[in-house]
Design brief:
The complex is a heterodimer of chains A (224) and B (359). By secondary structure, chain A is mainly α. Chain A has four helices and two strands. Classes of the chains: A mainly alpha (224), B mainly alpha (359).
Chain lengths: 224, 359
């Protein structure tokens, strides 16, 4: 990748300013790298928590599904379907807000709001519903908090990934664009300054020679 | 004993006994796919209903309906051949399915389902067949409408009384309990009209079903709910386990002590009760579904006990035991069909089959 140098005047003042900017850019890249490491650590922690929760959730859901099939086997698919269609749905809502997380990042936070009190009561017919169906329904009802927590964690992971990606882009920009650009410009200014210096020294030498010649000439004329 | 009442009925029952599927054949169906189960059932007593209901479609819901149709056909054959008090008892037993269909209608109307949708869930058994249900559902929008349309019929009065007396308007639970209570009161009433020996046998076979239902209700309350105030309102009329025993069992703090209380109270009254409650106490730490399953097997166990005890041909035990076995067979087939349709584990399906204890 070719790097374009900055459009600057090749002066010593610019050179000093550029060198200062380069040091600053390196410092920023260093800070960003540290932030990135913290974010990756945080991501790993969130991922682990989400993974544990996901395993627990899948396990509970698998057991609930197994109970559901047992209910179908015991009472018949028609009865289970009938009971499912006629039961009162659980009334709940999900409240969304933001919470400050690692490096002050605002993570979306989800909270389950149950309309009813969290008391245990029968939702299905006492005499006709098989206990397996009641157990499966109760298990799924109990796991709703975990579902919302997992959703919250997933949203936080997504947010973290976005921030990590942004930080990495910033670091890359500094490391592979800004600093090389500074380097090239510094190199150019140094080259130009060197060139100017050489030209100046030649000019001085020429002038010196001419002055010397003029002195010699005037001396010869005076002596004549 | 009025043996003439049995003259035509018993050969029919004996014939139907022969049509029952052998337990070994039933076990062999576990692990087979639905097509194979379908092909097997076509060659059994269920063949006619399966062909007419399913046609070429092999689907658990349709197979289930065909099984019910066969049970209805068998029950109707028995009703046709029976007379007098035995017929009255059989009619009262059949009313269990009337209550079941009525409860389905009440639930689904409350959930706002259309009449056409509701009819899909009506079991083709008892007085409330699809035709009658269609007539009831033709012009109803609420539970009150259904109850009003039943006014002239049997359950209308009891439902109207319950609706009038209940605290929460349109709460289904009290109405469902009232319907079941009415059915079981009717069965117990009809049992009282039987001859002395038949009365004892019928009390044992049908009574254990009612008792098991009461125990199941108590266990369900104890395992799923914290509020035990309404248990008594939902209990059925009592058979061998009296009200006092039920009341003190409700007061017990946990499931184990409840079952121990039952064992102490009724264990000495009947051998089958003792066996069942001993097993329940032993497995009291198991999930409630397991305890319910043990109770589910109780009527079948009692039927086998009564069959062994009363070897003589002319008694109600033979008929009631057949009905228990036929119903258990239908439940087992349904269990296998639904289990295999969902590709459930064969061991788990086997565990849910209602088979004789020493099978």
């Amino acid at each position: 990748m070719s790097t374009e140098r900055l459009e600057v005047h090749p002066t010593r003042l610019e050179l000093i300013a550029l060198k200062r900017r380069k040091t600053l850019a390196e410092g920023i890249a260093d800070i960003l790298q540290k932030d990135l490491e913290v974010l990756i650590l945080s991501l790993v922690e969130y991922r682990e928590r989400a993974s544990i929760l996901q395993t627990q959730l899948y396990d509970t859901l698998a057991r609930s599904y197994s109970q559901f099939i047992k209910a179908e086997m015991v009472s018949g698919s028609l009865k289970v379907k009938e009971l499912a269609l006629t039961t009162t749905p659980i009334d709940f809502n999900v409240e969304t807000s933001t919470a400050t997380g690692v490096l002050g990042i605002q993570f979306p936070s989800l909270k389950l709001i149950r309309q009813e009190k969290n008391e245990r009561k029968l939702r299905l017919s006492l005499l006709d519903a098989p206990i397996q169906l009641e157990e499966a329904a109760s298990r799924i009802n109990g796991v709703m908090n975990a579902v919302v927590e997992l959703a919250s964690l997933t949203a936080a992971i997504r947010e973290l990934l976005e921030v990590i990606s942004l930080k990495r882009r910033q670091i890359n920009r500094i490391q592979f664009k800004t600093i090389p650009q500074f380097d090239k410009t510094i190199e150019y200014i140094e080259y130009m300054l060197e060139e100017i210096e050489q030209q100046d020294s030649i000019r001085v030498r020429v002038l010196q020679r001419k002055r010397k010649e003029r002195v010699e000439k005037s001396y010869e004329n005076g002596s004549v | 004993m009025k043996t003439d009442q049995y003259n035509t009925l018993m050969p029919r029952v004996a014939l139907e006994y022969l049509k029952l599927i052998d337990s070994d054949e039933l076990i062999c169906l576990i692990g087979e796919n639905l097509e194979s189960i379908f092909n097997f059932l076509i060659n059994t007593a269920y063949g006619e209903e399966i062909i007419s209901t399913c046609g070429d479609i092999v689907e658990p819901g349709l197979l289930e309906e065909a099984l019910f149709q066969n049970y209805a056909k068998t029950f109707n054959k028995l009703l046709k051949e029976s007379s007098g008090n035995i017929k009255n008892l059989l009619v009262s037993v059949l009313r269990k399915f009337d209550a079941l269909n009525l409860k389905t209608m009440l639930r689904m109307v409350q959930a706002g389902m259309s009449g056409e949708q509701i009819l899909k869930y009506i079991i083709p058994l008892g007085m409330y067949d699809r035709k009658k249900c269609q007539a009831i559902l033709s012009d109803v929008n609420s539970i009150s409408d259904i109850i009003d349309s039943l006014q002239e019929q049997d359950f209308g009065f009891i439902l109207k009384e319950t609706l009038r007396g209940q605290k929460i308007i349109n709460a289904l639970s009290p109405m469902e309990a009232a319907l079941d209570k009415e059915v079981f009161t009717g069965i117990l009433k009809e049992i009282k009209n039987l001859d002395r020996r038949d009365k004892k046998i019928a009390t044992n076979i049908l009574g254990i079903e009612i008792d098991a239902l009461n125990v199941k209700i108590i266990l369900k309350y104890k395992s799923l709910m914290t509020d035990h105030e309404n248990i008594k309102e939902n209990l059925m009329p009592v058979a061998l386990i009296d009200e006092k025993t039920l009341e003190s069992a409700i007061k017990e703090p946990d499931i184990k002590s409840t079952l121990q209380h039952f064992l102490l109270s009724v264990g000495t009254k009947h051998q089958v009760y003792q066996t069942i409650f001993t097993k329940l106490v032993e497995e009291s730490d198991s999930p409630t579904s397991r305890l319910e399953f043990i109770l589910e097997k109780a009527p079948l166990e009692m039927s086998f006990f009564e069959l062994k005890k009363n070897m003589r041909y002319y008694n109600i035990g033979y008929i009631l035991a057949f009905l228990s076995m036929k119903w258990a067979e239908i439940k087992n087939l349904r269990c296998i069909i639904n289990g295999m349709a969902r590709k459930f584990g064969t061991d788990q399906i086997r565990d849910l089959l209602i088979l004789p204890e020493n099978y």
